[in-house]
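Here is the promised in-class demo. Please do not try to memorize the tokens; focus on the logic of going from shape to residues.
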């Protein structure tokens, strides 16, 4: 059976320090797919010790904005075991991954997003300007991974006031 764990770490660096290494943290959770919210890292802070662990593939969405003077205040990550614990086949690895809710961000590896969710053309988003959609996705609150038989959406949702500046009419 595939195991999925979700965990609001309130700072990934601190959780890794508590366990001694990223690999020890991931192994302690004993899951095939591990979803972290509130990693509190910027893209510039993504060093090998924070993002790579033998036997896992990682996907990150970090805040790209400095709203209210804060940087690295949100962020989500998904770690997928290369081989599932119950099988020798790579069932936990996604066939596609996308950063953000809307599909308008450039991919985290400098390429266009792989549109595993294809939300960018959705009717409900047409009333928003591209800049507004970029602000939403730029907060680092969503990673979507498509695992062929299911889609995993890791989302960090703030309180109502944290989104009001984007969703409320100006």
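The designed amino acids, position by position:
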């Amino acid at each position: 059976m595939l195991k999925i764990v979700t965990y609001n770490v309130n700072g990934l660096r601190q959780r890794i320090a508590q366990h001694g290494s990223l690999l020890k943290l991931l192994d302690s959770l004993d899951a095939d797919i591990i979803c972290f919210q509130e990693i509190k890292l910027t893209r510039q802070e993504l060093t090998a010790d924070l993002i790579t662990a033998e036997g896992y593939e990682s996907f990150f969405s970090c805040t790209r904005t400095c709203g209210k003077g804060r940087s690295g205040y949100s962020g989500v990550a998904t770690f997928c075991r290369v081989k599932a614990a119950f099988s020798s086949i790579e069932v936990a690895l996604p066939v596609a991954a996308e950063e953000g809710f809307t599909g308008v961000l450039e991919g985290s590896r400098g390429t266009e997003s792989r549109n595993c969710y294809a939300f960018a053309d959705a009717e409900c988003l047409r009333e928003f300007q591209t800049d507004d959609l970029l602000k939403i996705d730029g907060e680092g609150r969503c990673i979507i991974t498509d695992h062929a038989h299911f889609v995993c959406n890791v989302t960090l949702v703030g309180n109502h006031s944290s989104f009001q500046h984007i969703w409320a009419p100006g």
